[in-house]
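Can't paste images in this forum, so I'm doing it all in text. The chain is below; anyone willing to post the predicted structure tokens underneath?
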Amino acid sequence: AQELAKADVKPDVLLADYLMPGLNGLELIARGKAEAHSLRTVLMTGFTANHLPPQINGKPDLCLTKPFAMEKLLKSVRLALDANH
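Text version of the structure:
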């Protein structure tokens, strides 16, 4: 996420899985939003949103519960991008 501050082109949306090596998706989302405040985020997880640990700064804009169809992922990305305008 530190690279966002130095990047010439800023991403509009960040897709993150909750379980990743090194840091979880909520931590990545928190770092991304700290670097790019308008960044929209989609968290993908096998947990339901109610069972995710609370993380104030890492709240995703949308949460997708796995498994999901590709169409649902595409719709979620579109919703996230539309909410940014």
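The longest strand covers residues 40-45. The first helix runs from residue 2 to 6.
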